[in-house]
Every structure is written in C-alpha cells, then in structure tokens.
Amino acid sequence: MAKHDQFDDFFGDDEAAPVADTRADGRLLRVPLKRLVPNRVNPRIDFGTKDELIDLGKSLRRRQIQACPAVSRGAYLKLWPDHAKSIGDVDYVLVSGERRYRGATATGNPSLNCVVDDGLAKDRKTFMDAVVSENVDRQNFNPIEEAYAVQALVAEFGSNRAVAQHFERVDGWVTQRVLLTHLARDAQELVRKKAMPLDAARSLGKLARDNGWDSQQQLVWWQDEQKQRAAASAERSAAKKASKASALPRPLVGVNAGAEAVTDEFYGRKTLPADDAPYARQVAAPSAPASQEGEEVQRPASDELVPEAPVPVPRPAVRETETVQAAPTGPWHSGAALMDEAISTLSPSERSNFILRYFHVSSGVEAVIEDMRGTLAGEDRQSLAVILQQVTNGLLR
Predict the structure, then answer these.
(1) Which residue ranges of the chain lie beneath pLDDT 70?
(2) 41, 168, 237, 361: which is deepest, by most CB within 10 A?
(3) How far apart are the C-alpha atoms of 73 and 361, rounded to whole Å?
(4) Phi-psi category of residue 345: left, alpha or beta, with phi > 0 → left and psi -120 to 50 → alpha
(5) Which residues of 357-382 are buried (b: 16+ CB within 10 A; e: fewer)?
(6) Which pTM value belongs to this model?
C-alpha cells in the first residue's frame, strides 16, 4: 500500500485513503465521501435545489463548522441488517447531515468531518431520535416531512404519548402531525407549497383517514372548503364594518360641544381633554311632574341635554341619568370576542404587535401572572404553564 500523508484526504479520494484522526480521542474524523453514506431511514426528502446544494458545498469546502454525526457500518447493520446491499461497502453511515453530504458531493469535495459515535446506534429508538430530533427541534422539516418523521418515531417508541413525552409536548402535537400522512400525494404537495393551510390539511387528513378518501375525493373536499372559507371571510369582513359603524360616538351636545377631542394612543378612542373633565358629564333633562290641576308643566324636548350643575340642587322626584354617549357595541367589552376578531382579521405581523402591546402596557410581571391566572382552576393553570414553557423554548431556538 502506498504511503499516505496528511494531505491525501483533501487532494485524493481513492478507496485506500485513510481516515484522518484529527483528535486525540479518535471520535472526530475526516472521512472520504466514498467511505461514507447517508442512512436509509431519514424521513427528509427536500434537500434544496441543485444551486443551493452547490452553494452549500462551496461553503463546506472553505470551512465546515459543524461535524456530521455518524456510526460505524457494523453498528448500523445491527439495527437494519437488510440495508447491507443498499449502503454498499462503506465504513460509516451518517445519522444526520445528509444535506451537507449532498452539497459536498455536488461540488466534488473529497471528505466531510464526522463525529463517530456508535452509542447513537444503541437501538432503533435511539437512532431514530437522533435522526429526527435535530430537524424537529430546529423546525428544518416542511410539515409533510415532519409528519413522516413523527410517524417513524411513533413506530419505534410504541405510542403517540411516548413520543409526546419524549419531546415534552402535548399528545395533540403528535396526533396533528401524523394526520398529514393520510393525505394523498396531490394534497401533500399543496401543503408543501403552502397553498393549503395546516388547519385545513389536518382536518382533511382526519377525514381521509376515517373515510378512506382517495386523491380525487380529497381535492373535491378542498375545493368546497375554499368556497366556504371565502364566504366566511366575506361575512366576517362585513360584520367588522358594521361593528365599526355602530360603535361611532354621537356628537357631543352642551358645554363640551366645542371642545377639541384627542386620540388615545393605543385604543384609538376619541376623548375629551383632561381640563374639561369636570364638565364632561351630561344628564338628560328630567321629566316634569304634572301640576296640581293635572296640567303638565312645560319641559324641553326629549332629546335635549343640559349640563349638570357644578353643585347639585336637590329636586324632589327627579332622577339623574348619565348619558355621555351610546353604549359601544362590537368586541371591545369581551376579551374572547376581541381575540377572535384579532386572529381572524390581522396579518401575522400585526398579531405579533397586538400580543406584544399587551406586555408593553401591563404594569409588570406580577400583573401578567394575575391576568394569566384569572379564574382558572389549578389543573388548568398547570396546563397553561406547560404551554407557555413550550412557547418559551420555541422562541429561544
């Protein structure tokens, strides 16, 4: 055998090229591509376009920041002995990093840095967890790939609940993803292209699973669903316009009729200046009692308003009624209705601003906790805390 030096793995890639040990413990290896192969159980199928892979390969040629986890051929075949022919005569099998492998292949790179750890091939469950976790945790999968990845985990872990507990998610997180595997290829393609929203895709997946729908039946359902969604959207838009129209304040009558209104920065409501506050209250003119002879005393028109005196004078049988303006309608006096309105009409960026504004105007962490606690029972508060922790984990990824 010809003698190899430290540059052979970069400038040559023959079958006899040695694996260069770059660390004292021998786990970080520079492996020639011909002695390395991706695993055959990776649920990911979208690795980017040819140009994107070439760009990645060029980047890897300059510097590979992240090494690819791999296991030895023997350790892999203990788990999947029927893959012996498909992986060929290689030394190592990638656990993850197939996109880097394809990028390096596209640009003719001679090798990849790999961290070889046969502990990842302890059993199928451990191996599949390593294959899927990196992509699920970083949300690198498209929804369909993620669905098949989670389905593969369920097969190894034994149940939806076991997978959910492993990833510290609620059971529904697993169920919602597996439903997408029941979609026909054409419907899945719509999800990949974001032409079908996920909530509709999951509903369709459940219907397809329960009713055994084929591709044509699924597409017919989606056409009908689009029509219903368009009609519902138009109805919400009309209701929103009607709500805004009915909520318009009546013109002020009386001492404040000429006062200039100011706009509240957050709510957009028109209010009177603070200096006019003592005179802002208006009362309806009282109904005049009948005279002793039964004749009614002259009174103003029923819709005339008069300002309240600064020092009230007691008047028998007179009831003061505060009528600043008509009571507002719409969702503003219902938290649930207001949130429904926001979710259905705001864009994603506007929804983010809506949520962030709550924290900006709150009076501190304790106030937020009190709002979140509300009237929830202890068990519901615990569930909410788990959800908020998952949201935190997602924001910090």
Answers:
(1) 1-26, 134-141, 247-334, 363, 396-397
(2) 41
(3) 59
(4) alpha
(5) eeeeeeeeeeeeeeeeeeeeeeeeee
(6) 0.46
